[in-house]
C-alpha cells in the first residue's frame, strides 16, 4: 500500500484551534504508510485562528464563522486541494452551510467517527461524548449516532460547564496540567457510569489534555479517525488510478 | 504583546519532511503568546513531500528540487502569505535560486540560528553541527557562522554517514527508538569532545530523535529559533501597524 502515486491533495481547513491543527497534521503524517518523505500525501493547510469562535456562534453569543470557512475553503481549492478535512468538531455544525459552495468533497469527521464505532469489536451500543457546548447544542454526534442506532450519553449541565469547557479553554490557552487531566478524567468517568462503552473525545483539544490510559473504556479520537479515513481514501484512489 | 492585530500571514514551505513540518507548526503555535485561538497567527502551509530529496540533489544523485520550491512558494503567495519560512535546513541551499522569484521575504532559518548563537550567554565560540550530508556539503552553517566569527565543528566522515544519516533516515521512516537516540547522542558527544559549546540540531528530523537532556551542552533547535523569529517579526509588525 502506497500513497506516492496518488493525485489527491489533502486540504486542511484549520486554525480551530491552531494546536489541534498541528496535532491533526502530525496524526495524518503518522498514519500514512511509507518509509520516505516521498510516500507522504501532498497537503495544504489553511490555519486561520481568527475564525470567530464556533461555540459562541452556536450559543448565539458571537458572529457566524461561515464566511471565514468559505474563504478558507476557497484558498484550499485554489491551492490545488482535491478534498477538504476540517479538524474541528464544532465547525461541522457549519458544514451544511458551506458544503454546496466549496466545490470539493468534505470528509466528514463526525460521520467517520459514527461509522468507525460500528466497526469496533465488541459492538458499541452506548457511546459517551466529551465535546464543546457548541457541538453538544448542535446535536452533531446525536444526529450521526442515531443513524447507526448507537445511544449517546452526555455530561450533565454542571459537568459540561465546569469540567469539559474549563478543560477545553485551558488547552486552548496553552495549559495542559494535572488539573486539566483530572477534570476530563472525572467527566469521562461520569459517562462510563452512565453506561458508555466508549468515550468520544469530541473536541480536538480534548486528546491534548486526556490520555487514553486515563479512561476505562476505549477513547475515540475523531482526529485520528479522520486521518485514517483520508489515508484510506487516498490509497484507494491511488490503486484505482 | 499580542499578534492578534497583525496582518502577517505566515507561509510555511514544508513537506521536507512532513513530520518536521507538523513539528514546526506545533512549535510556532506554542511560541505564539496569547490565551485564545484568535491570538494566533494566520498560517498557510504547503506541505509537498514529493519534492525531490535535497541531499541527493546536492550530492549530484537526484533531480533539482528548485521547480517544486518555486511552485510551493507561488501557492503560498497566492493563498495570501506575507512571509515565507522553510522548516528544512537542507532546502536552504536552494534559497539563492528561489529568493528573487518568490516575491515575498524569506525568514532564513540558518541566518536566524547564527544570529541566535551570538545572543547566548556565556558566548559561544565553537558550535557543533548535526545535519544532513547535503547541508554539510553545501556549507550552509559554515557560511553563516563565519560571518559571526563562530568556529564550526563537524562529525568525521564515518560518524556523518553511519550515525547522523542513519538516524535521519530512521526518523523519516517513522522509527524513533533507542537506537536512533543512541546514534545521535554519540555523534553529539564527538562534537563536544572537539570543543563544541553548543550543538546545532541542523536537520529538522534531529530534534525528533534527540532530546536536549541527552547532550551536555545546549542543543540548538533551528525550527524553534525560526518560530521565535517569525513571532518576533509578526508582533513587531503588529506594534508598528
TrEMBL record, chains A, B:
InterPro entries: Asp/Glu/hydantoin_racemase, Asp/Glu_race, Asp_race. The keyword Isomerase applies. Keywords: Isomerase. The keyword Isomerase applies. Pfam families: Asp_Glu_race. Belongs to the aspartate/glutamate racemases family. This is Aspartate/glutamate racemase family protein.
Amino acid at each position: 500500500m502506497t500513497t506516492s502515486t496518488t493525485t489527491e491533495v489533502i486540504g486542511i481547513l484549520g486554525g480551530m484551534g491552531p494546536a489541534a491543527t498541528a496535532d491533526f497534521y502530525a496524526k495524518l503524517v503518522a498514519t500514512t504508510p511509507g518509509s520516505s518523505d516521498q510516500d507522504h500525501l501532498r497537503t495544504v493547510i489553511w490555519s486561520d485562528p481568527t475564525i470567530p469562535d464556533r461555540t459562541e456562534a452556536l450559543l448565539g453569543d458571537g458572529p457566524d464563522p461561515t464566511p471565514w470557512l468559505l474563504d478558507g475553503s476557497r484558498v484550499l481549492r485554489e491551492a490545488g486541494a482535491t478534498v477538504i478535512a476540517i479538524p474541528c468538531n464544532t465547525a461541522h455544525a457549519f458544514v451544511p452551510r458551506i458544503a454546496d459552495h466549496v466545490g470539493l468533497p468534505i470528509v466528514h469527521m463526525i460521520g467517520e467517527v459514527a461509522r468507525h464505532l460500528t466497526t469496533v469489536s465488541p459492538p458499541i451500543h452506548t457511546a459517551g461524548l466529551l465535546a464543546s457546548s457548541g457541538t453538544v447544542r448542535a446535536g452533531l454526534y446525536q444526529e450521526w449516532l442515531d443513524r447507526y442506532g448507537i445511544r449517546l450519553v452526555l455530561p450533565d449541565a454542571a459537568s459540561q460547564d465546569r469540567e469539559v469547557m474549563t478543560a477545553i479553554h485551558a488547552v486552548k490557552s496553552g495549559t495542559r496540567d494535572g488539573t486539566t487531566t483530572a477534570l476530563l478524567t472525572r467527566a469521562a468517568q461520569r459517562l462510563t457510569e452512565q453506561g458508555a462503552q466508549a468515550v468520544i473525545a469530541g473536541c480536538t483539544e480534548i486528546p491534548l489534555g486526556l490520555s487514553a490510559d486515563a479512561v476505562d473504556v476505549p477513547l475515540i479520537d475523531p482526529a485520528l479517525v479522520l486521518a485514517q479515513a483520508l489515508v484510506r481514501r487516498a490509497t484507494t484512489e491511488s490503486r484505482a488510478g
